[in-house]
Design brief:
Elements lengths: L1 E3 L3 E7 L2 E9 L3 H14 L5 E8 L2 E5 L9 H10 L5 E8 L6 H18 L3 E3 L3 E8 L4 H10 L3 E8 L1 E9 H14 L5 E4 L5
Antiparallel strand pairs: 1-7, 2-3, 3-6, 4-5, 4-6, 8-10, 8-11, 9-10
Helix pairs in contact: 2-3, 4-5
InterPro entries: EFG_III/V, Impact, Impact_N, Impact_N_sf, Ribosomal_Su5_D2-typ_SF, UPF0029_Impact_C
Pfam families: DUF1949 (PF09186), Impact_N (PF01205)
GO biological process, one term: regulation of translational initiation
Length: about 200
């Protein structure tokens, strides 16, 4: 999976209609909706502000008044084809007076996002995993040392009936952490994936 380092835009003119395509990094749907609202305010005379989102396992495709399936969905497919995550694609359309037809609209919206992505700097995205672990008191220092070795982050610690740790690691490192912790604790550890709020 890849993300973007910064926003990139391009402008296409097709049969007197102007398509302003932009791709930019976003963290979630709320941030995407806020950005789309900003674009609507910046372009009050635009006929449409269509958008697509891939972020954190969530997706969205909005045609904003264009015929169903001619704008948001094609833009979303471009993002999926490029294996992107944490990316909002928007196209602001100023209608030029000539209808493009369904096929023409699909091509125009697809091309606007594809051209913007050609100019974008992509970076690999590391998938993170948050775990809630419970283990014996005697194994706390071992767990902390292992977490440090694997480049993880200790989020919270509590002590009651054993030690409860909330940790965050890159997905592959999380598997290694759990496997080594199970071995070290001789199976006397329990864990579950925590629900990420981001």
């Amino acid at each position: 999976m890849y993300g973007l380092t910064h926003p990139v835009s391009c402008t296409l003119e097709i049969r007197k209609s102007r398509f302003i395509g932009c791709v930019e990094p976003v963290s979630d749907r709320a941030a995407a909706q806020q950005r789309v609202a900003e674009l609507r305010a910046q372009h009050p005379d635009a006929a449409h502000v269509c958008w697509a989102l891939l972020a954190g396992g969530h997706s969205a495709a909005v045609d904003d008044g264009e015929p169903s399936g001619t704008a948001g969905r094609p833009m979303l497919e471009v993002l999926r084809h490029q294996q992107l995550d944490g990316v909002l694609a928007t196209v602001v359309r100023y209608f030029g007076g000539t209808k493009l037809g369904a096929g023409g609209l699909v091509r125009a919206y697809t091309e606007a996002i594809a051209q913007a992505l050609q100019q974008a700097d992509l970076i690999p995205v590391q998938r993170m995993r948050t775990l809630h672990c419970q283990l014996p008191f005697a194994q706390e220092s071992t767990a902390r040392r292992l977490l440090d070795q694997l480049g993880g982050e200790l989020l919270t610690v509590s002590h009651s009936d054993g030690v409860q740790l909330d940790v965050r690691l890159e997905e592959k490192a999380a598997e290694d952490f759990l496997q080594q912790l199970q071995t070290t604790c001789r199976g006397d550890v329990s864990w579950q994936d925590a629900v990420d709020e981001d």
